[in-house]
Design brief:
Helices cover 20% and strands 35% of the residues. By secondary structure, it is α+β, with helices and mostly antiparallel strands. It is globular. It starts with a strand and ends with a strand.
């Protein structure tokens, strides 16, 4: 049995794979921190589900808060061949392209801090592009939920907003290209379940003034590293009191001629999770 957890500003709703389309309202006491520090998150959420009220009518298409408590959000880079190629392209002029080629083949993955909970946006909220950037893209990413013991227990959709112009200028500018207001979105829900099949699809569409200006699709089978490997490196010599989210990299990068604009609508869909939609604003 698996569960989907939806968080609104006023409540939490749970959906079981045994009763798809029916949602139980958790009246009080739900804590993402407690879930992420549980030794058995799947059993914990099953107990909460059993103790919740009867199934209620619920519209899963409304806006949702990010499914997060006090977890940090981290990210892995250059885990897909397409990402390696794009990173090398943007960094070639500055001479940084060799580093992306090396890390794709290296035993140790690229991991970097992405966002605090306060900087993480939810479904139908705004994501940002920097006012000092000229080349910006969303990065659709399968995102792991990892408890405080380093155990992967679930997943969600992540949007790793990125300034390609700033990162391409110098790899040392990565924190500025990746960490800023509105640079991270998670949702629309947290799925508590084993990892989906390798053929699971990840798709993105970007709309501008009512017309689609970009779309792309990949699958989990295209990722170079295993989820356990990435989580293991994140927890090496590092302690996460309240667990963590880990974005696992992107296999979809628009061509160099594309950049986001204000009011673009970004929709990322992953089978079994749903669709995370955000509108772009300048920050």
């Amino acid at each position: 049995m698996s569960f989907r957890i939806f968080k609104t500003s006023a409540a939490v709703f749970l959906e079981s794979s045994d009763a798809p389309g029916l949602f139980r309202h958790v009246e009080s006491g739900f804590s993402f921190n407690e879930l992420f520090t549980s030794t058995d998150p799947a059993a914990s959420i099953a107990a909460i589900y059993d103790g919740a009220g009867e199934e209620v009518s619920f519209n899963p298409e409304i806006s949702f808060d990010a499914p997060i408590g006090d977890q940090e959000v981290w990210a892995a880079g250059v885990t897909y061949f397409r990402s390696r190629t794009a990173r090398m392209e943007e960094a070639e002029v500055a001479g940084g392209d060799v580093f992306y080629d090396k890390v794709y083949e290296a035993p140790r993955p690229e991991l970097f801090f992405k966002a605090t909970a306060a900087r993480t946006r939810g479904h139908l909220d705004h994501v940002g592009i920097r006012s000092d950037s000229t080349w910006d893209v969303p990065e659709p990413e399968f995102t792991l939920a990892i408890n405080s013991e380093g155990k992967i227990f679930g997943h969600t959709i992540g949007n790793d907003m990125s300034s390609r112009s700033i990162e391409g200028e110098n790899p040392l500018y990565l924190p500025q290209a990746k960490n800023y207001t509105g640079a991270c979105a998670l949702g629309p829900c947290l799925v508590v379940a084993d990892a989906p099949a390798p053929e699971t699809s990840i798709a993105i569409t970007i709309s501008r003034a009512g017309s689609e200006v970009f779309s792309g699709e990949t699958s989990l089978s295209q990722i170079k590293r295993s989820f356990e490997e990435l989580a293991g490196y994140l927890f090496r010599s590092n302690h996460f009191k309240n667990g963590a989210y880990l974005m696992t990299g992107t296999g979809i990068v628009p061509d160099s001629s594309f950049t986001l604009q204000v009011d673009d609508i970004v929709s990322i869909t992953i089978e079994g999770i749903g669709t995370l939609t955000n509108t772009v604003e300048k920050v």
